[in-house]
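Re: the request from the purification team.
They wanted to know what the chain is likely to look like in 3D before they choose a buffer screen. I agreed to run a prediction and write the result into the notebook, where they can find it.
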Amino acid sequence: MTEPHDFPPPWRVVELEAAYRVEDAIGFTVAYICFTEDPEQLGFTGRLSKDEAWYVALQVARAPDIHIASMTLEQEQIKPRSTAARKGR
């Protein structure tokens, strides 16, 4: 069995010939988002247009930032309130 891999941020998007590759900070591939620039193939290949694929790749690349932000928010909500805050001061 392989060791689990951390995907350190920041993630980046690399444009290839017919896909975008999302990589983590050390260059490990996180995802491929395939596209086609041929309008005739869009309907039957299931691939995205280049613009659609770019948008998806950007959203995937933002995932670590969103995860870090949600973890920070959760930690702030878990912190116990001070005694003064509970007494209404």
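For the purification team: The beta strands are 12-15, 19-23, 29-34.
Please add any questions underneath this entry.
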